[in-house]
Amino acid sequence: FRSHRLRRLHRKLVHVDRRIAFVGGINVIDDMNTPGQKPPRLDFAVSVEGPLLPLIAQTMQRVWALVQLVQLGTSQLPLFPERGHAERVGTQTAKFVIRDNLRHRRDIEQAYLAAIRRAKREIVIANSYFFPGITFRRALADATARGVVVTLILQAKVEYVLLHFASRAMYGQLLDAGVIIQEYHKSMLHAKVAVIDDRWATVGSSNIDPYSLLMAREANVFVRDRGFAGELKHALADMVKAGARPVAPQHWKSRSRLYKAAIWVAYGIVRLAMGFLGYGGNEWFPRRR
Containing domain of residue 210, as a range? Predict the structure, then answer.
């Protein structure tokens, strides 16, 4: 087993003639083919025009060149392509942010944290694989402490058993802090989006877990625009209304000892595996209290 296999290309990017691009969490697969689960997957992507296009195209070309160099020993494309230029379209302010294992290791996480720390009224995060580090969890708890309504829309379906149960080990801490947790059960949730204060939003490929934030190549678009944020928030509200159930704090505390033991065993295994790969430490795996 080689740990570099986990440093996967997880971005979901398309650009067409540098005229339009698509950024999000949608894989090029048959979303109706979900063995053992009810289709389709619920996911999001955003179409992009304007000044972000050259950067998206440059990012994709660079990865293509790297793959050619690794696989073939040579590349027909330059490793450091020119970015180019595109005229502004519309009035929205947006930023294309990537995560890699060199200069941009924490860019997506830092963008999330900066927005969470500035939040004044509401934070809504929909994320299919949610296993945040302690800094992220503290930022959410601090937000609720200053009166911000924090809602997490998380996966109810079991896809990866170990991660599913390990992530539940964090529910108690989050619920005690006043975070609202909605579990989406209608179909498979694959979304990686967020809306803050009706004016900040993100859509992309990055989960909030150690695989996305510490290992994988990811790409998100961050947008400051009330219209865009409002449309996404409305879609999330419809999603919750149609197929989510709240996790009641009292009900969670009354879970059986066997269930609680199972989630902490899963948590311990994930912690051990991440430590073995060199990604452990108190940031992601604080001691149980």
Answer: 99-276
